[in-house]
Specification:
This protein is α+β, with helices and mostly antiparallel strands and about 450 residues long. Helix content is about 30%, strand content about 20%. Helix 8 runs antiparallel to helix 9. The longest helix is centred in the N-terminal third of the chain and has 23 residues. The two termini are about 30 Å apart.
Length: about 450
């Protein structure tokens, strides 16, 4: 009887190598598939679970605001219960010289605020940007609201204007889709103060002047003047037409808090421009994307002027806020200054100093004298050039508040992200390699 032929050792080894190569290639290809990105919360679907908010939900659905909310995340909605709505909301808004759509925009805060966040508010309150600010019709920063703690109630929401304006008391939390949508009930409609009566709803939006945005927002005079004087602000317009930009703007207090030995102001103009570009991501990232970021190391505009892997920011969520680590400085985002695709501007607590140009000693942060100027850096090859991102980083899974009676409805309306395939592919590769390598 003929026995089974055994392949020669060399042939068996070659066959094993082919198997290992094929398995590794398949797993690597799967790991490199683009990560799914969660979309914004369907606000209308969330509100359907609450009949007491039906009137406010109808106002949103019948206005342009409903479309503007599509795709947005990291929001707080100040919803007015049926019993607290005026008999004619349109007439109520018109009596104050405002358009109803802008009044509704004033009830959309571009930041996720949970009841726990409200309880931690400082005595001076917190300035939060609203959707109305993104229209360009709000004088200065009057498209923001000041949220302050108020004893037994959760908070008071009012205009930051020095002259009297309407305000509302937060009655309680309705529901939440963590880090994407928080719905708070307020006791009445809030009308934006200082409304520009000459503004037209149909007026086409002007190009975003980030230097003016910072100047109007107050507390950013140093950042605005440095951007203007350096010419870096002129580079933003082309970026806005692409994937957009995200700007981390240090406050005047952040500049005042720089250690005496950092020598930032005494740097040559071209090196000072590198520091300013280091505060900009070459993509539009709303706050929700930064809060749920998967790939924390992000290239900056300064990276594109040097080489891949340099001048990057490490962005993570820590203690309920977004933390930014440069390798020398650890800062946090303190508030949203402006957010309208394709431009996002956030206030940061410290000036972001790159480790390529500064070092930390026991007593101070000092400039690195030996660091080569940007022009002296080696030219990058096309293969190593940083990729300009065209969409926000992937978001973590979100779900409705399990403690709320309407949790099922919220969870159905909330976006979810399927577990990324790359993690289990890499884990499977580690498991299979010890089994396949002895065959080689």
């Amino acid at each position: 009887m003929r026995g089974r032929q055994i392949p020669p050792p060399a042939a068996a080894a070659a066959s094993s190598r082919v198997v290992v190569a094929v398995v590794a290639a398949l797993l690597l290809a799967a790991a490199l598939q683009p990560l799914p990105v969660a979309s914004g919360v369907d606000v209308a679907a969330v509100l359907t679970a609450f009949p007491d908010l039906a009137g406010f939900a109808r106002l949103l659905a019948s206005s342009p605001v409903a479309g503007e909310l599509a795709g947005r995340s990291s929001l707080t909605l100040l919803a007015v219960p049926n019993g607290n709505l005026p008999q004619s909301p349109s007439a109520y808004a018109a009596a104050s010289g405002a358009d109803l759509a802008d009044v509704l925009r004033y009830h959309v805060l571009l930041e996720y605020l949970s009841p726990a966040d409200l309880r931690r508010l400082p005595a001076s309150g917190k300035l939060v940007t609203t959707l109305f600010q993104t229209t360009g019709r709000a004088p200065a920063d009057l498209g923001a609201v000041n949220v302050t703690a108020a004893g037994s109630s959760l908070a008071i929401v009012r205009s930051p204007a020095p002259f009297p304006g309407s305000n509302a008391t937060v009655l309680g939390a309705i529901t939440a889709v963590p880090y994407n949508l928080s719905v708070l009930a307020v006791d009445g409609l809030i009308v934006p103060s200082g409304f520009d009566l000459a503004a037209s709803e149909s007026r086409p939006p002007a190009a975003v002047n980030i230097t003016k945005v910072l100047a109007d927002a107050r507390a950013f005079n140093v950042a605005a003047s440095m951007l203007e004087a350096s010419g870096v602000a002129d580079e933003f317009e082309a970026d806005e037409r692409g994937a957009g930009i995200t700007v981390f703007a240090p406050t005047d207090d952040a500049f005042a808090g720089l250690p005496a030995g950092d020598r930032l102001q005494s740097l040559p103009a071209e090196r000072k421009a590198v520091v300013l570009r280091f505060h900009v991501l070459h993509s539009y990232y709303p706050l929700g994307s930064l809060e749920s970021i998967v790939n924390p190391v992000q290239p900056t505009l300064a990276t594109e002027f040097t080489q891949a892997g340099r001048f990057t920011l490490n962005i993570t969520r820590a203690n309920g806020s977004v933390a930014i680590d440069t390798g020398v400085v650890q800062a946090t985002i303190t508030r949203t200054v402006f957010d309208q695709n394709p431009v996002a501007v956030f206030a940061v607590s410290k000036v972001l100093l790159p480790k390529e140009m500064f070092s930390r000693s026991d007593s101070a942060i000092v400039a690195v004298a030996s660091a080569p100027p940007p022009a002296a850096l080696p030219a990058e090859s096309p293969e190593s050039a940083p990729t300009k991102l065209s969409s926000p980083p992937a978001l973590r899974d979100t779900a409705g508040d399990a403690n709320h009676t309407a949790a099922a409805a919220v969870e159905a309306a909330a976006p979810t992200t399927k577990p990324t395939i790359c993690r289990w592919c890499i884990a499977l590769l580690y498991l299979l390699l010890p089994l396949l390598l002895p065959l080689v």
